[in-house]
Specification:
The chain is an alpha+beta fold. Helices cover about 50% and strands about 20% of the residues. It binds adenosine-5'-triphosphate and magnesium ion.
Length: about 220
């Protein structure tokens, strides 16, 4: 199923790369501007292909349980603040402000740090991609003794209610054309769902005009 679904997606950028390379090395002499343009396109498409392959590889590894969890003590507040900093150029580019709110200055949980980073990479990446019109991104940590809730909120784009349960399905994208425009493969949240599951955590999404799109991950103490 995975191979069938992805065959088309892998082929599309590759076809375009081959096409432009043929033009570049073909008999027709191109001026410098055109050469640059074609090279830019093949580069962009190659990056897209790379992302697709990385996502697929990451997904299949998780899917077949080959990924071994390396669990340790992670300060989730510190991790999130570092990750937001790493995204700084992306926030800048989209003219987005971001804020990290937390009811504690530090909160140590037992989890796989790399998987947590992938999880929030996807959630924050999505918030930037789909919330670019919303002007700000909010990351919130609500910690108490039994559980820690982390939510990522963006504004500006509401997911239709009937589609909310579907966005965690692999290859599912809301409003295909728009999502294709933003370069998604629809695997991000499927990977997120899997990472959440291996941590015995929960994930929820709400999307409303005034409250924005909020994805909340809840880590439970008893499952650590
Ligand atoms: P990929 O993450 O593989 O690059 P993607 O972003 O399209 O591609 P997912 O991350 O799985 O895939 O998200 C699925 C769909 O859910 C998206 O295409 C988008 O339509 C919708 N979506 C996800 N996150 C948000 C968000 N924060 N705000 C609005 N819509 C979202
Ligand atoms: Mg995504």
């Amino acid at each position: 199923e995975l191979i069938t679904n992805v065959a088309h997606d892998l082929r599309t950028p590759l076809t375009s790369i081959i096409g432009y390379l043929e033009l570049l090395s073909g008999p027709v002499k191109l001026n410098e501007e055109m050469q640059k343009k074609y090279l830019d396109i093949t580069y962009k498409k190659s990056k897209r292909l790379q992302k697709l392959i990385e996502d697929l590889f990451g997904f299949t590894k998780l899917n077949y349980g080959k990924i071994s969890m390396k669990v340790s003590k992670e300060d989730i507040v510190k991790l999130l603040s570092q990750m937001l900093e790493e995204f700084y150029p992306n926030f800048m580019e989209k003219n987005l402000a971001y804020e990290l709110q937390s009811n504690v200055t530090a909160k140590v949980i037992t989890a796989d740090g790399n998987l947590l980073a992938r999880l929030f990479d996807n959630l924050i990446g999505n918030a930037i991609k789909y919330g670019a019109e919303g002007k700000r991104i909010l990351v919130k940590v609500m910690a108490d003794t039994d559980e820690v809730q982390v939510s990522v909120t963006n504004y500006g784009y509401v997911i239709p209610a009937e589609e909310l349960p579907l966005i965690f399905d692999k290859f599912y994208r809301v409003e295909q054309s728009r999502s294709t425009h933003t370069g998604g493969t629809g695997l991000g949240l499927a990977i997120v769902k899997h990472i959440v599951a291996v941590h015995h955590a929960d994930i929820e999404v709400t999307s409303e005009e005034d409250k924005g799109t909020e994805i909340t991950v809840t880590f439970h103490k008893e499952n650590e």
